[in-house]
From TrEMBL:
This is HAD hydrolase, IA, variant 1 family protein. It comes from the Bacteria. Its cofactor is Mg(2+). It comes from Paenibacillus macerans. InterPro entries: HAD-like_hydrolase (IPR051400), HAD-like_sf (IPR036412), HAD-SF_hydro_IA (IPR006439), HAD_sf (IPR023214).
Length: 243
């Protein structure tokens, strides 16, 4: 899947946010250490993968990520209960809620992956339209965007948050809407994201070119194949800019 040729997406490149533009594992690790006193030998990355899996799975069962209220809180705590149970950690609901609260608090002390903003700047210099498509409640996602100072690089009209739009990845209608509002055909759009279900399969289903940002070297969740696969921002630069 990996290629050294630039992807055919000269007109628009949209990025996912969580674990694509910044390291989403750090808030997860910090929350578990603070609330559950997990040690350095705990398998944080595999547990994180399972938490993200259950987050996507529960969102799909609900017909999209809830944006507020009890349904959202239940989904957020349940993903910790289910994922950590696979690693021998049994959580009561109040413990899961405490982990979730600590996890959220740490999501606003974040910084972008090295070379992420450099790549965005180069894409814009090459006259590519650069935007963001992310799932989640609007206020929560905007706090992360501002914490990263991403709003200095990407204008608000090119930032699509599922809770504000009313459509959740991987629903192709979200990608259709973004392309239509940009005045572009699907084949002129490229999407970069880490989630197999939401980003890779979702964007490809709408006819977009997809680059799976698989920096954690996860296994595919199905037989579907993305157009390209990248393991680092150096890989992304080669695929998008031919560097």
């Amino acid at each position: 899947m990996k290629s050294t040729k630039p992807a055919a997406c000269a007109h628009a490149v949209f990025f996912d946010l969580d674990d694509t533009l910044y390291d989403h594992l750090l808030p997860f690790r910090g929350a578990l250490q603070a609330v559950l006193n997990t040690g350095d030998d705990f398998p944080y990355e595999p547990a994180y993968h399972r938490m993200r899996y259950y987050s996507d799975h529960l969102s799909a069962l609900a017909g999209g990520t809830p944006t507020h209220g009890p349904a959202l809180e239940e989904m957020r705590t349940e993903r910790f209960v289910r994922s950590l149970a696979e690693f021998g950690v049994t959580l009561k609901q109040e413990q899961a809620a405490a982990v979730q609260a600590a996890y959220l608090d740490r999501q606003f002390c974040i910084r972008p992956f090295e070379r992420a903003f450099e790549l965005i700047g180069k894409l814009k210099s090459d006259k590519a339209l650069v935007g963001l498509i992310t799932n989640g409640p609007p206020e929560h996602q905007w706090r992360k965007i501002r914490a990263l100072e991403l709003d200095r690089l990407i204008p608000p009209n090119l930032i699509y948050i599922s809770g504000a739009v009313g459509i959740t990845k991987p629903d192709r209608k979200l990608f259709d809407r973004v392309a239509a509002e940009a005045g572009l055909a699907p084949e002129q759009c490229c999407y970069v994201g880490d989630s197999w279900r939401n980003d890779v399969v979702g964007a490809a289903g709408a006819g977009w070119r997809t680059i799976w940002f698989n920096h954690r070297r996860a296994q595919p969740e199905s037989a579907f194949r993305p157009h390209e696969q990248a393991f680092s921002y150096a890989d992304l630069s080669r695929l998008l800019l031919g560097e």
